[in-house]
Amino acid sequence: MHPSIWLAAVAGLVQGVVEWLPVSSKTIITLIFAAGGVSFTNAYVLGLLANFGSFFAALWYFRREIGLALRGLAHPFANSDDAVVLRYLFFATLATGVIGLPIYVAVRHVFGTTSATVAMLLIGLLLVVTSLISRRREQLAAKQPEASSVAAPGIVTTLIVGACQGLAALPGISRSAVTVTPLLLRGHSAKDALRLSFLLDVVALLGAAAVPLALAHGKLAALGHGNLEPTLVMIVVAAVVSFFTIDAILRAAQRLRSSVLTLAIGILTILAAIVVH
């Protein structure tokens, strides 16, 4: 079944808001499309494609930092700020790909061979895990001082953050939650951890959205079996909403208690799977 224009618009609206919270946006988008009659496999792919919208907004928001990283290409091994940002984005993204791509392929296989009930149970359980991670992140953020004790992420921290981001390919796992937490544990202030996490999200959003197309899967299947209009509507709405909300979310993110919301969604998803079964 093809997603309707209205369903795609709702998905874009949700993507534009929850992408910037420590809640798994792709999981919520997947559940929205699944509730609208789309198969879990295609709903999961659409949940990844929705990242294109947030990517364009994030690219504009962090245009100065991205420009700084591009200048670092001239001397990638120097100790200058631009080179440090470049290495952070490069090595974190590399670690993300090593961990995240096999997970993406496995998730598609699982969703393609299991029932909707099993898929919903898996998503619900992973959302519960995310809520626990988010809660730990909230506790750490409350204890961290405003000034960071670590000026910039070193190679070890970068690889850890990148590997954790790869785990976010699992439906239910929040990219924000699993990247901010290790940064806090490694000594960064809450403000710096959020900035570094969202900066890395620019590359992650592009990668997550491009993977379904790059790995083909029939190409048209990745766009909802050739139904291009709903996909484009979702991306445009996500871009517009992200553009207007990203700054507000970044300012408030360290004070939000999204762990409770994530836990509630996870429990409701598990209960819905049991009821449907």
Q: Which shape, going by the Cα principal axes? A: globular
SS-based class: mainly alpha
Largest sheet: none
**N-to-C CA distance:** 21 Å
Features:
mainly alpha; globular
Q: Secondary-structure map with pairings?
A:
Elements: H1 5-18, H2 25-35, H3 40-49, H4 51-61, H5 63-71, H6 81-113, H7 116-143, H8 155-167, H9 175-185, H10 190-214, H11 228-252, H12 258-276
Helix pairs in contact: 1-2, 1-11, 2-3, 3-6, 4-10, 4-11, 5-6, 6-8, 6-10, 7-9, 7-12, 8-9, 9-10
Walk me through this protein's architecture.
This protein has one domain. The chain has 277 residues and is mainly α. The protein is built from twelve helices and no strands. The radius of gyration is 18 Å and the shape is globular.
What would you say about this model in short?
By secondary structure, the chain is mostly helical. It has twelve helices and no strands.
